[in-house]
Amino acid sequence: MGGFLIYFILLLIIPMWAQFKLKRTYGKYSKIRSTSGHTGAQVARMILDQNGLHDVKVTESRGMLSDHYNPLTKVVALSSHNYHEASVAGTAVAAHEVGHAIQDAEAYSFLRLRHRLVPIVNISSNASWIFIMIGLFSAWSGALLVGIILLAAGVVFQLVTLPVEFNASSRAMDQLLSHNIIRNDEERHAKKVLNAAAMTYVAATAVAVLELLRLLLIYTSMNRS
Description:
Elements: H1 2-29, H2 40-50, E1 57-61, E2 68-70, E3 75-79, H3 80-84, H4 88-105, H5 109-138, H6 141-178, H7 186-224
Parallel strand pairs: 1-3
Antiparallel strand pairs: 2-3
């Protein structure tokens, strides 16, 4: 019983810690004005143009930290603060999202794989828990196994997401430095913002892997008994 309690506490603490770290780090560096004086929108447009991605648009996205790149519409969407303000955090986030646009233009393998997994995961993520709950409540190991297999697709998606995000951050730093958009201590500060954002993906992956392992142990125990 104690082991399960610790496990569920970890499931809650890991993502909460990652989100807290991101909000605290972002909150700190969103208040520090970048020395370049460029808004996130300007930074994104500058890097896109420098890489010949003139067809990719930069738009404003409602909501805090709603920043993302849509490969279908070729749009870099930045949350309002990052879009309009000239901050270290906004600069880092804008460059990161453009990093995804560059990945898309170069047909980065992990990004392409993640796109292919999206329709599969959209179906399997919901269906998996139906089979898992049936298996757990009825002690039907076959249903549980089907649920585990479907859930595993989501775990694979999470694992594939990690190199996509870390690579986008690496590209972001390269672009910011090569075009002299950040200077002096800003490089260290921008890395802190990007690392904090990356930890949210690491936390989500860790939770997904732990849950998959727990269900595999339950399935093994069912078959033994």
